Amino acid sequence: xxxxxxTEEQVAVAAVGRACQLTSSVFNKxxxxxxxxxxxxxxxxxxxxxxxxxxxSILYHAFPADPIVGEEDASDLRVESGKEMxxxxxxxxxxxxxxxxxLGDNANWGIGPGQAKSDxxxxxxxxxxxxEGGSTGRMxxxxxxxxxxxxxxxxxxxxxxSLIVDSKVQVGVIGCPNLPVDPAHPEKxxxxxxxxxxxxxxxxxxxxxxNPTPLTIPTSTPETFNxxxxxxxxxxxxxxxxRVSSLLNITRPATxxxxxxxxxxxxxxxxxxxxxxxxxxxxxxKIWDHAPGxxxxxxxxxxxxxxxxxxxxxxxxxxxxxxxxxxxxxxxxHPRVLAAVQKALxxxxxxx
Length: 352
Ligand SMILES: Nc1ncnc2c1ncn2[C@@H]1O[C@H](COP(=O)(O)O)[C@@H](O)[C@H]1OP(=O)(O)O
Ligand SMILES: [Mg+2]
Ligand SMILES: [Mg+2]
Ligand SMILES: [Mg+2]
Prior knowledge:
The protein is an alpha+beta fold. It has nine helices and 14 strands. It has a seven-stranded mixed sheet, sandwiched between helices. A five-stranded mixed sheet has the order 11-10-12-14-13, sandwiched between helices. Strands 1-2 form a two-stranded antiparallel sheet. Strand 8 (201-206) and strand 9 (213-215) form a beta hairpin. The longest helix has 24 residues, at 6-29. The chain is globular and about 60 Å long. Bound molecules: adenosine-2'-5'-diphosphate (A2P) and magnesium ion (3 copies). Residues 143, 146, 289 line the site of one magnesium ion.
C-alpha cells in the first residue's frame, strides 16, 4: 500500500546521491566569487544552489504536485550581478542532471544523458523550494548543503532531504560525502548516505546507494558516551553542554562536527547524544535542519525532543517555532540527558 513510500525513498536516495557527487566535485574546484554572504550573514556557494536545483528537478519529475521547503532561493541569481554565479550553477547542475544513470535511477525523473535544463528551468527549480510549509498535506524539505561552513573548511557537511506528511516526517535522507564509512576504520574511506522510512528502520548506504546496513543505536557505556555538538559556537551553546556533561559525569570530550552528520553518527552509535541549546534569543531552527535527522534517530531506536521533552513540531511553517533547543539520544539515555538539561536550565535561571 502507498504508505510504504517505496518510490519516495528510491527517488530521495538517488537525488541525494547525485547532489553529493556534485558537492564533492565542486569543493575541489571552488574559486573566489563562487560564494555569497546571505542577508543573515551565513555563506552560500554555487554548490548549495546547484545541489538544490538538482534535487528539486528530480522531485518535480517524480512528484510534480508536491511542494518543497528548500533553504535557498534564486533571487540573487536573477539580477545582473549574479550572472556569473548563475552561469556556473547552471553548468554544475546540468553536469549532475545529465550524468549517466546509476544504481536505482530512473530516466522518468528527468535525469541522465540528454536531459540538460535551461537557465530558467534551473532557477525555477531552485525557487520551487519557496513553499511556506504547514501542518497538512505532503511536502519535501531540502537543505542542499547543511553545514556550509564545514563544507568550506573541507570538514563535515550533509545533503539533506525529507518528506513530511501532515506534520510527520515519513522519509529522511542525509548524504555525508566526507564522513568515514566506518568510524573504527577511517582508512576504509568516506561517503555515506543515511536513510530512514517511518516504521521501516534506519540504514546506512554507500554514496552510490549500495550495501544497505541497518542501524540501531547501541546501549551506551560510560566510557563511550559523549555529546555531539556544533563546531560553530554561535549555533549552539558549548558552555551549556559542558555543564550538562559534568552533571552526567561524562568523561569523554564532546565531538564537534558540522551539520546533520551528527544525527547520522548518533544513529550508528558513534557518540551518545546530540545536544543543541540556543546561544541567544531570536534564531528559530529551520525544519530542513532537523526533519531528516529526527526520523533517522527515531528509526534507529532513539528519541528526539526539545529541552522540555516535547516532540519537534514540523507543522508550524519553515521553522520549528520558538527555539527550546534539541536533545536527541538513544531511548535509555534520553531521559537522563533531559533531566540534566532541565537541571542546568534551572541553574542558569537562578543565576539571573
Ligand atoms: N544562531 C544559530 N543558531 C542555531 N543554528 C544556526 C544559527 N545560525 C545558523 N544556524 C544553522 O545551523 C546549521 C548548522 O548547524 P551545525 O552548527 O550543527 O552544523 C545551519 O543550517 C545553519 O544555518 P545556515 O545554513 O543558514 O548557516
Ligand atoms: Mg542547514
Ligand atoms: Mg544549507
Ligand atoms: Mg545555509
